[in-house]
Amino acid sequence: MTIMYNSKTMNTNFNFEELKSKxxxxxxxxxxxxxxxxxxxxxxxxxxxxxxxxxxxxxTNTKSHLKELQLEDPTYKDTYExxxxxxxxxxxxxxxxxxxxxxxxxxxxNDDLDFEAFRNTLFETCVQVLEKLRTEHxxxxxxxxxxxxxxxxxxxxxxxxxxxxxGKRLNSEAIGNRFEDYLINE
Length: 186
Description:
Blueprint: H1 7-10, H2 16-38, E1 42-50, E2 57-62, H3 63-72, H4 77-82, H5 94-108, H6 115-135, H7 138-143, E3 148-154, H8 160-169, H9 173-185
Parallel strand pairs: 1-3
Antiparallel strand pairs: 1-2
Helix pairs in contact: 2-5, 2-6, 8-9
């Protein structure tokens, strides 16, 4: 998969291939770290950015955390499952993800930047990394099972259609459809 962007239109010399490599490496590291800590209790993994395109942060959820929240307030059962901000932890590979955040936030400070093009390419880069890891069965090989994988944006006005498309690219048809139903009915 190639990241499509035109640096002349975007007014940047930002190296998205380097970013993609860093995100993949950091994602592998955090997932392996959390697999050792939480094992088969892990049920979900996500990368999250923000509308300002200044962050890339990992989130991991566990079955026990999900069940606890769903029992406390069944009204938000699906929210607890599909909203990474509600998940168990964002800890792990901190140095790597801090470096990634610095890399992208420094570029956002570029006065000549075509922000929308940069933002869209950043988001697509994150989705491509997760898609590659899922296609390679990385998550399944680490845990011995498939899990919910998402790319999310905090406090966003991103069209639901984009979020749905990403959810479907990163998951089985059944999970993708459940995620779509959640977003449409939220």
